[in-house]
Each structure stands twice: as structure tokens, then as C-alpha cells.
Here is the input.
Amino acid sequence: MIPSKYEEDELQTLCNEPREGKQMISAATSSDTELNEVDRAAAQFRVQPDARPAEVDAERLYCKLSAMLHDVMPNFEIAAKAEVAAEINRLKIAKRAVILGHNYMEPALFHSIPDFVGDSLELCRLAKQTDQEIIVFCGVRFMAETAKVLNPHKLVLIPSERAGCSLAAGVTAADVRRLKEQFPGVPVVTYVNTYADVKAESDVCCTSSNAAAVVESLHSETVIFLPDEFLAQNVARETGREIIFPTRDPKKLNGTDLNYSLIGWRGRCEVHEKFSVEDIANVRKQFPDAVILAHPECRPEVVAAADYSGSTTAMARYVEQTNAPRYLLLTECSMGDNIAAENPQKEMLRLCSVRCPHMNQITLEDTLESLRHDRFVVDIPADVLARAARAVERMIAIG
Ligand code: 13P
Ligand code: SF4
Here is the structure.
């Protein structure tokens, strides 16, 4: 870890001292000349509506973060992260980059560098609207690919090459082509948690917040829904459809035997599949007043036993807008920290033994290197990109 340049007793008093504008900027690696360049770039920087303010002063950023995160991180780590984050913000402005951050990003990153945060659908929409030249996607590969699909002429960067997704890896373009042969004419809905070549084989994409609406918008008796087994079952329940799961062997199922109306796939999220009804029962025994929220990638019986189910942003809004004694989110644990930081009066329980190893690849340190060296560039072959764009744009048009 990069050490902070402050002693612990300095950190304890830093935010109590009155501080003034730019003279106080002290990001460790910045010279005055660079500052002037940043100021000039900032003057031209067209801030988009609702963008979060970019703090380039490391001390001010430290004070903001420590007010939010003092319960989850020690001061010296917050100070070190604030220095990296301030440097990222300065570079971001100078290079006309926009940073998109998924709700699962770790708290210090989530509350310091993204211009926009949100769930998959919100970030798709924002990626389409940005007027910046570089998009840095603090999320996993399939999300960065979606941003590229919607912005083929922009430079899209992802800070780590290792930020994959078990769900996206669970289905291939060849799998989709085989299903289309097996069920000719049946429209294919693909969850955005897939790679671009899979999206390219699809009629339309969906996210956890619009999956049922997308399926219904097709007005088709039968729909192929890929790749999440549990999301498909949850959508089947919501839309009143029977669901089947053909194996990878097409001979095992006769495509003309249609006493079902949703055709699923056995893909799973390695995080959400681990939450169980027993977890909910145990939490309710200890905390009978806890409100439990489950992401739609959880098993249907878990979603049924929870009090609410929705996308990552829908869950965050639910907590913000209700007044329960305490909440538990059945999703990546960073979400609980991020919500607690913004809503200090709300008590968040956390089940953190299950983490998303892919989302956790994205760090402030790697994001700084990503911006410094324009890496890692997300590229998609033109023909795949054009076909994937049709499916993603069609989803965005549905809502
Ligand atoms: P959201 O679309 O709800 O943000 O979910 C994305 C994801 O990867 C959940 O695991
Ligand atoms: Fe993929 Fe699950 Fe991680 Fe989301 S939480 S990125 S679906 S592995």
C-alpha cells in the first residue's frame, strides 16, 4: 500500500483546521505547473448534469472520505487513498476522461473518483451520453464492453484485465447459435452480464432492473433468456411464464414440444448463488426487525423469502427512502458499506464472506495507472460491435 505522508496525530486534527481554496492543494505528485494545466483543462471541461464534483485537493478529499468511512477504514489508509484519488481526479480532468463506477466498487473508490455511479442500466445510459473522449470503467469487463459498444469511437479503458464475471463466462456465442438452431424464430433476450460476441447473437439485452419489461415487450409466446438461471426463474415468476433449461446437447429436447414459454440457461453468479433461505432465517432470528433485500440474481426461493428484490440501485434507493431499524443486502458486500457511508443514520448488516472477486480487482491504484498509461484498452471487432449495439440500443429504447 502507498504510505500516507501524514502521521496519525496530524490526520486526527487535519479536518478540524479551517482551510482555504487551491493554495491548500497538496497532492503528493503534483507540481505547480501541472496544477495550472489542470486549472486550464478544468475551465474547458464541460461538466455533465448530475456529475459528481471532482475533488483534486487530497486533504479536502481525505476530510470528505474520513467523514464517511471512519467506521470502516483507518485514517492512514483513507489518507493514502485520498492522495491517489486526488491524482486520478486531476488526470481525469486534464485528459477529458469520464469515470463510471458500478455500485459494487469499494467505498474509498466509490466515493472519490467516479463522475457517475449506478447499476448496469444507468451506467449503460450514461456511457451513451458522455461527451468526454475517454471512458474509464470501474466495473467488470462486460460493463466496459457495453460502454465501448455504445461509444465505438471513444477510448474505453478498464483498470484491470482480470475483472471478469462468472455469469458472463457461462455462455458463449456458439451456445447461443446452437439454441437458435434448436428453437428457430424464438427471440433471444440476453442479460447485459455477457460478452459482446454473445450480445451480438441476441435480439435484445436486459439488465436486472428491466428484465421482465424487456421479455414482455417482445409479445412473443416463447422467449430464450440467457444466461442467468435464477434471474430467468425470477422473471418467469414475475411474468407468469413456465421455464425450461435445455442442456448443451440439443438432442435431449424437442424444439416443437412447446409447453413452456421461457427457455433459460444454467449460468450463475458466483456471489448471489451462495445466499440461502437459511441465511435469511438465521438473520431474522437474531434481528427480527431487519429488512432484507435480495438482488434478482439470487435463487427464487431467496428472493421470495426477502422483503424486497431489485437492481443494485433499486436496493440503494429502497434503503434511502424507507425507515427500517436495520437492513441486510444479499449482494456484494461493498454495497452495504457504500450505502452506510451515504446514510450514516441507517444501520446496515453485512454478509461479507461472499465477495465478487472480479469487481474487487478494480482499485484506485490500478485506475491511476490506467489513466496514466491509457490501459487496458477495450476493443471489440467491428462486426461484433455493430450487432451487439443493436441489442443494447434496443434495450435502452425499451427503458
Ligand atoms: P446491477 O445491474 O443490478 O447493477 O447488477 C450487476 C451485477 O453484476 C450484479 O451482480
Ligand atoms: Fe458477475 Fe456476480 Fe460479480 Fe456481478 S457479482 S460481476 S454477476 S460474478
